[in-house]
Specification:
There is one protein chain. The longest helix is centred in the C-terminal third of the chain and has 25 residues, at 330-354. The protein has helices at 3-14, 56-68, 114-127, 144-148, 190-202, 222-230, 246-259, 290-298, 310-318, 322-325, 330-354; strands spanning 32-38, 41-48, 75-82, 102-106, 132-136, 155-157, 162-164, 166-168, 171-175, 211-215, 235-240, 264-269, 274-275, 282-283, 302-305, 365-366. The protein has two domains: 3-83, GMP Synthetase, Chain A, domain 3 (2-Layer Sandwich), CATH 3.30.300; 102-353, Rossmann fold (3-Layer(aba) Sandwich), CATH 3.40.50.300. It is an alpha/beta fold and 367 residues long. The strands form four sheets. The protein has an eight-stranded mixed sheet with strand order 8-9-5-10-4-11-12-15, with helices on both faces.
Length: 367
């Protein structure tokens, strides 16, 4: 059997393996690279659209098993790599040309754990190997410095006088809170808020990022409008709590992003339930299923539930996020699942915009 015939048989088998989210096979999506055949041994790489792909190990096994079914194949080696899909236009004309995806985290009202969600989702994405930044765009009430335990000020470096973002737990960070005394309130009109957000995008050396998470202030004020005007966003995540009354607040945020033509990535339900440490009984303190009903009502994905745990609040107050300090806790695992769902939906949106991720001719064969 010729090497070309073997190649066609391998690709035919790989065409039977579909990406479960995009509903197309790995070959036509351009996700197969570095295909090499040596006698009865086959090796290739699957290039994922995000390192946070929640089914990456399943896809690896599906592809390996498909090729192993060929009667002449005795050995299959599969390597997983990632090339994060860009859900927005990346180019030198942009304020942040090397950032592939800008993801806004928003809420209809305060007190729903939006900043806590932003920090822990950013950390969960970084754990997978993604390059992640977190911008605290809540100019009036910045909480990120406290939640990550940073009090020092960023430095201005380089020939262009760029601000160097601070780094903690593997993610790049920027907040107005790094520059101000904690006791001094920010009393600014809208244009000043716009200018601050613009400066944090234009004058900060973010470098190459797969994801820039932007923690927005609650409501529908100046910050989300400025962000949408300044950079093309991959999408917005809405954080809510289980109560039915939250529907009214969320609907305003949904309407705002749709008017701004920003895709809605999905809804996260925070403080979903509490499990007693002593009796292990689950208590749904704020009601049940509000987040899912909101997602269903607006026709957007439901990204998951995060339980109410005292350790989450304690970690935020102490600058030690739960994803880092208690990685096996229920809340940390929930944040990881939510982060995977966010990355998954961003990849789907990128595919719907671009039609593919990697050119088909990227498939190579080592003879």
């Amino acid at each position: 059997m010729s090497i070309d015939t073997k190649r066609e048989e391998v690709l035919r088998q790989l065409r039977t393996v579909q990406d479960p989210d995009l509903h197309r096979d790995l070959v036509s999506l351009g996700m197969i690279q570095d295909l090499a055949i040596q006698d009865t041994a086959v090796s290739f790489s699957i290039v994922l659209t995000t390192p946070a792909c929640p089914v990456k190990n399943d896809m690896k096994e599906w592809a390996r098993a498909a090729v192993a079914r060929l009667p002449w194949v005795r050995e299959v080696n599969v390597d997983l790599r990632s090339q994060t899909a860009a859900g927005r236009t990346v180019g030198q004309g942009q304020l942040i040309p090397k950032v592939k995806n800008v993801i806004a985290v928003a809420s209809g009202k305060g007190g729903v754990g939006k900043s806590t969600t932003s920090v822990n989702v950013a950390l969960a994405l970084a754990e997978t190997g993604a390059k992640v930044g977190l911008l605290d765009a809540d100019i009036y009430g910045p909480n990120v410095p406290l939640m990550v335990g940073i009090k020092e000020k960023p430095e201005v470096r380089g020939e262009n006088g760029k601000i160097e973002p601070l780094v903690r737990y593997g993610i790049k960070l920027m907040s107005i809170g790094f520059f101000l005394d904690e006791s001094n309130p920010v009393i600014w009109r809208g244009p000043m808020v716009h200018g601050a957000i613009q400066q944090f995008l234009r004058d900060v050396d973010w470098g190459e990022l797969d994801y820039l998470i932007v923690d927005l202030p609650p409501g529908t004020g100046d910050a989300p409008l400025s962000l949408a005007q300044l950079v093309p966003m991959s999408g917005a995540v809405i954080v809510t709590t289980p109560q039915d009354v939250a529907l009214q607040d969320v609907s305003k945020g949904m309407g705002m992003f749709r008017k701004l033509e920003v895709p809605i990535i999905g809804v996260i339900e925070n403080m979903s339930y509490f499990v007693c440490d002593h009796c292990q009984t689950r208590h749904e303190i704020f009601g049940r299923g509000g987040g899912e009903r909101i997602a269903r009502h607006f026709g957007v994905p439901f990204l998951g539930q995060v339980p109410l745990q005292p350790a989450v609040r304690e970690g935020g107050d102490e600058g030690r996020p739960i994803v880092v300090t208690q990685p096996r806790s229920a809340a940390a695992e929930a944040f990881r699942a939510v982060a995977g769902a966010v990355a998954q939906q961003v990849s789907i949106l990128a595919y719907s915009n671009n039609g593919a991720f990697i050119p088909i001719n990227a498939i190579t064969l080592n003879r």
